[in-house]
Design goal:
heterotrimer, A alpha/beta (419), B mainly alpha (313), C mainly alpha (276), B: 313 residues, mainly alpha, MetI-like fold, 13 helices, globular, C: 276 residues, 2 domains, 78% helix
Chain lengths: 419, 313, 276
């Protein structure tokens, strides 16, 4: 879906006006906004960067920033929300599908309804649904996260491979890389959340290309994982393993090790979320990395990519400092803020921005984003958090040979319909 | 400063005061004294646990303001749930493996140390050190050591095994082994120290008498050391079993219950079901069942071992 | 001291000693050595001593993991909890044992049975109660928690010891006209010293190293204890192993130091107390 240029110009004007107001009113003190915000560890640096800017605009504001690892975050936040001790602004996952997604937490009354905030109109249509539950908007989405193959430019160039546009080409790339003595794809399946990513990279092409309304059909009980394009995706996933496209022992390799492999050039690429690109750069000491779309189909026109609102911030409904919280959330929605945040993470901003897409890192995958070939992450449309957990576990079991694709999908179906 | 002499398990029966004594009953041990302990225990353990247990009969997801009572449905579901059964099996395996290994190694180390304790104080200190280090720290250390490119595999590769020799944490069966190794590495010191204390309580004369009869090392062990270690065996076995049954920190850090569900224990399952999947009512039902299981096993074990102790004496 | 392994011969014993030393020493050695390596060296030669020690790992780890504050919190929690646990536990066990009535035995059983209750059962209701009392985020939440949760084990330990104590001293004191409280304070409690050491050691180590409960109550607050700080720190910097290990070493140093000084007591505590 193309972004609307007038919008960004308008918000630029708005930002200028605001800063003029603030600068002009330096003697008339800008209000102080004290509040606390909690986020996941992966976003901490980005959050701190935008908080610094916020404090510049509202000098004297005291902002407490806390972060926790995703699993720990979910646990702590759930307990804190139930007992009313949660911070004022909290990181929330868009859509549904995990225990701290807005669809789980918002309708239960824990998040403030943000529907009347000025920036709600600017939420891209493709993300509108995952920022809402039962018609109310609960979060400001911050990043557009893509899943694709993050590759080491040096390695790819040295092996003389081209960016594959179809599945067959992708397999060919894998063979060429193997011949060049390099691990084609680093895979860190010891870390549970990594296991889902290759499936996610393939499913848009194998499922949604022919059935864009797959999620609605599943919700209505007219479709299931078993017997759908998911079978094809999982078989492709396992096929890659059989062909030796992954490193040895993916189940014994952690997420961090997989990044290290790509960073040091031992592996050519890793299929990951865009947010990890900065980490890979740290491992490598250089930034010659880019991301291309994993072609899950043999018809290049049918290739779709996973692109979703990756993170968002909501306001605690029971917050006693809602004025400050709302001011911060509005601040987050500004183009400059969002771009800064996204850049710190290494993703794209959720509100489209021409400048962000100019980053050469995203050059290979840019056409997909611009022509709207993105599909939200599958879990954002699932009705409960259990399906995702089962998905993690069955992928690990598939890799250890403890289960079959049919059985795996059957268990995901059972989790989908569980109460 | 000498080591405090261990209180043996065979304590004399306390004297019973007459029910109504002319002076203050029980030598002045007023009921008030027990109040702080009881209050703390009731407020922190009993009442919340009872409250929590109530949730086992609901479908609460831990967040929503409403919940519904669903009777014993959670328990029925747990009974039929393959994940629960698998976690139960894994928990039992852990408890068994940890108990056996910890006790064998602990006993062996105790025997070793007992031979010349004076010169081996540093060894005892070293071998006990892992016990006091935070389990989370130990688990992270081993997580790295056992990773496919970690120190252990690097040594194995250097010794001739292929690259990425053993899939310590990625292979379902090896993952179980790895968790056991890490846990036993940390806690074998406890068993060692208890056995050592037990050994040092055995009177020299018994060994001397056996020597005079020309008994071999093995005979001495079989007929003197081992039987007289019975109380130590009881404590060690019960302790390591209960710890094994409740195992959490190491699994949480090393494998998160994976790969798949290969190392998922009842503890980690309850945790995940409560907080990550968000089925709090169901998780509490599992926790309740787990409590009963642990209680039954530990009490049964305790009774059997105590019986054995008495028999030996 | 002649025992069974005596006849195995010095060779085997030495070998066993060396092996067991290595078993424990090598991982600990690696913990220290790896904390001083940078990324590249970690993968190339993990086992050798670091060629260019990266001391900055330590300063960064200290700063990022906020270990100074965490240390203070851990110390505070342990000390405050122990005070309550020792006093209330010894008093409680004393009553329950000396009374010897069916009621006191029943109460004793109920208290000690608490040892098998998994913490997850009461976790949420307790958290809500603490939240209403506005204790969440403060170390007092943990002090209260440990005071309650460690009571069964503590009472169990004290009871075992008290049962074996001769009544003569207490009776003598009573005959001298001492009140119940004075008997306890001046006669019983001093005699409990050996087991109190055990109680302090075992509870102290457990509380210091406890992870999940502080995670719930203090996560992200300024008062988080060391295990929580470590977990958060590792979660955030998982890709930088050298830094992570430096953090682990720093976090382990307090306990290891205390251990080196107090190891006789610690070991005696574990050995003696548990047997009781």
């Amino acid at each position: 879906m193309s972004y609307q240029v007038p919008m960004s110009r308008r918000s630029a004007v708005f930002a200028v006006a605001l800063s003029a107001l603030v600068a002009g009113g330096a003697s008339a003190a800008a209000p102080k906004h004290d509040f606390s915000v909690f986020t996941v560890s992966s976003d901490k640096a980005a959050l701190e960067a935008v908080v610094a800017k916020f404090v510049e605009r509202y000098p004297g504001s005291k902002v407490r920033v806390n972060a926790a690892d995703a699993d720990q975050y979910q646990t702590t936040m759930r307990v804190q929300l139930t007992s009313g001790t949660a911070p004022d602004v909290i990181f929330t996952w868009p859509g549904n599908g995990n225990s701290l997604a807005l669809a789980q937490v918002g309708p239960a009354g824990y998040l403030s309804d943000l529907s009347s905030r000025p920036w709600v109109k600017r939420i891209p249509d493709k993300y509108r649904q995952v920022t809402q539950s039962q018609g109310k908007t609960y979060i400001v989405p911050m990043t557009e996260t893509l899943i694709g193959a993050v590759f080491n430019r040096d390695v790819i160039e040295k092996a003389g491979v081209a960016i594959p546009k179809t599945w067959t080409e992708f397999l060919g790339t894998c063979e060429k890389l193997k011949a060049a003595g390099v691990t084609p794809i680093a895979l860190g399946n010891a870390t549970p959340w990594v296991t889902q990513l290759v499936d996610y990279a393939l499913v848009p092409s194998t499922v949604y290309a022919s059935q864009p309304d797959f999620d609605e059909r599943m919700a209505a009980g007219k479709a299931k994982f078993a017997g759908s394009g998911w079978t094809d995706a999982m078989n492709k996933y396992l096929d890659l393993n059989r062909r030796g496209c992954f490193n040895k022992n993916p189940l014994g390799t952690s997420f961090e090790e997989s990044l290290q492999m790509v960073g040091t050039g031992k592996a050519a690429m890793v299929i990951q979320v865009s947010g990890i690109i900065n980490q890979v750069r740290t491992f490598a000491g250089h930034d010659r990395f880019a991301m291309f779309a994993v072609p899950g189909a043999d018809d290049a026109a049918k290739v779709l990519i996973p692109a979703a609102a990756g993170s968002g911030y909501a306001v605690n409904a029971k917050s006693k400092r809602s004025a400050a919280a709302l001011a911060f959330v509005d601040f987050l929605a500004e183009e400059e803020t969002m771009n800064l945040y996204a850049k710190r993470i290494g993703s794209l901003p959720a509100f489209p921005s021409a400048t962000a897409l100019d980053d050469p890192t995203f050059a290979p995958i840019r056409p997909f984003v611009e022509s709207g070939k993105g599909v939200p992450f599958m879990d954002q449309r699932w009705p409960n958090a259990k399906v995702q957990q089962v998905h993690f576990a069955v992928v690990q079991e598939l890799f250890s040979g403890a289960t079959s694709v049919g059985d795996a999908l059957g268990r995901m179906d059972a989790a989908y319909t569980a109460k | 400063m000498t080591m405090s002499s261990p209180v043996t398990a065979e304590a004399p029966v306390p004297t019973r005061w007459p029910a109504r004594s002319p002076r203050k009953p029980s030598g002045g041990a007023s009921w008030w004294f027990v109040l702080p302990a009881l209050l703390a225990y009731a407020a922190v353990v009993l009442l919340p646990s009872a409250g929590g247990a109530v949730f086992a009969f609901t479908d609460w997801n831990g967040l929503a303001p409403e919940l519904a009572f669903i009777g014993g449905a959670n328990f029925e579901r747990a009974f039929r749930d393959p994940q629960v059964r698998s976690a139960l099996a894994v928990t039992a395996v852990f408890a068994l493996a940890i108990t056996v290994l910890q006790n064998i190694i602990g006993l062996a180390l105790a025997l070793l140390l007992n031979t010349s304790i004076r010169s081996r104080n540093w060894l005892r200190t070293l071998l006990f050190a892992p016990v006091v280090v935070t389990p989370v720290i130990v688990a992270y250390l081993w997580k790295y050591l056992l990773s496919s490119n970690g120190a252990v595999n690097q040594v194995a590769t250097a010794l001739g095994a292929g690259e990425g020799a053993v899939n310590w944490l990625g292979d379902p069966r090896m993952a179980v082994v790895s968790v056991v190794i890490v846990t036993v590495w940390q806690t074998m010191g406890v068993a060692m120290v208890i056995y050592l204390a037990g050994l040092q309580n055995i009177p020299e004369e018994l060994y001397e008498a056996a020597d005079m009869d020309g008994a071999s090392s093995w005979t001495k062990f079989r007929l003197i050391s081992f039987p007289l270690l019975a109380p130590a065996v009881t404590i060690n076995v019960v302790l390591s079993t209960v710890n094994g049954l409740k195992l959490f920190d190491q699994v949480f850090v090393l494998t998160s219950g994976g790969p798949g569900y290969a190392t998922e224990t009842l503890s980690t399952l309850v945790y995940k079901t409560s907080f990550i999947v968000g089925e709090f009512g169901y998780a509490t039902a599992i926790a309740l069942a787990m409590t009963v299981f642990v209680a039954a096993v530990s009490m049964g074990l305790m009774a059997w071992l105590k019986g054995r102790e008495a028999h030996v004496h | 001291m002649s025992t069974d392994l005596h006849r195995l011969g010095p060779w085997t014993r030495e070998l066993a000693a060396v092996l067991s030393t290595g078993l424990v020493a090598v991982p600990l050695y690696l913990l220290f050595v790896l904390s001083l390596k940078d990324q590249a060296e970690m993968t190339r030669q993990p086992l050798a001593l670091p060629t260019a020690p990266v001391w900055s790992n330590y300063s960064r780890a200290y700063a990022e993991a906020l270990l100074g504050d965490a240390f203070m919190s851990s110390v505070a929690v342990v000390l405050l909890s122990l005070i309550f646990i020792v006093l209330a536990g010894s008093l409680g066990a004393y009553v329950l044992v000396r009374r010897g009535s069916r009621l006191s035995n029943a109460i004793f059983f109920v208290v000690v049975a608490g040892m098998v209750i998994p913490f997850q059962l009461g976790m949420i209701p307790l958290y809500q109660a603490m939240a209403k009392a506005e204790l969440v985020g403060s170390i007092w939440s943990l002090v209260v928690f440990y005071s309650g949760v460690q009571m069964p084990f503590t009472v169990f330990l004290y009871a075992g010891f008290i049962r074996a104590m001769p009544l003569a001293f207490e009776e003598a004191a009573r005959m001298d006209g001492a009140s119940g409280w004075q008997v306890f304070r001046l006669v019983v409690f001093p005699m409990l010293r050996p087991i109190t050491i055990t109680v302090v050691v075992l509870n102290g180590v457990f509380i210091w190293n406890d992870f999940l409960t502080p995670l719930l109550y203090l996560s992200g607050s300024e008062s988080q204890t060391i295990p929580v700080a470590v977990y958060a720190f590792v979660g955030q910097y998982a890709t930088d192993w050298g830094l992570v290990f430096a953090g682990l070493v720093l976090a382990a140093i307090p306990v290891l130091t205390a251990y080196l000084f107090l190891q006789r007591h610690l070991i005696a505590g574990f050995a003696g107390g548990i047997k009781g």
